[in-house]
Specification:
single chain, alpha+beta, Uncharacterised_YqcI/YcgG
Length: 243
Amino acid sequence: MQGTNKVLLTKDDMTNPAVVPGWVIHEYNTFHQIVTEKTFPCYFGMKAEMKGELRYAYITQEDWSNLPKAVEEFLTLFNEPPYIRHGLFVFVEPEEEKDDLEHYRKRFWDILQSLHENDKQKWPDDTPKDPDHYLWDFHFGGEPIFVFGNAPAYKQRKTRDLGNSLILGFQPRKIFEGLEGTQKGGIMSREKVRERVEKWDNLPTHPDISHFGDPDHNEWKQFFIGDDAEPVQGECPFLHKAQ
């Protein structure tokens, strides 16, 4: 880390050269510029970024060791209601040369697997461990979290290209209270965001995008969607660790 032991970072930290390296400042500035663009589809993310409610972390190509602590600290923000719609965005040091989408997809799942392997808490007993179960969700610190990947290899789905970094977005399920898939507010909000995404990407909503709890849906498939309108194929790369 850069002259400080902080692992969970604020908006001010992300532009402070005493706290973060130059590549982080550069990638954060690109991220900020994109998500605060007035037509950016996710207005929850836009408002949170502008208000300084988001949190950040960064990892290098070789060293991911600070990520578990960053996520642990992030989850303490949700210890008591009201649950502000915080999100955590983890920036991965860019490669010297951009790679294809499969490279970033593999790196995304490798990072999530590593995070899981370093989770001090076991998953709740009543939650599925098999990603093919429609109620499977990623957990860390006992909390269900929606995680989504953004990468520079996205060419058509521009909403998923937030700069030169692979960026992992972490959204605890708690922030969706009142916006669940079956709630009226959630359905309306989701439809508005999806309309805006389709406009930005000039593509239909990805077929794997649905709401949590949809029995015809696998949650893991929307963690890292394709750069097209084709369903994600194959098995989930994630493996639940032996207890």
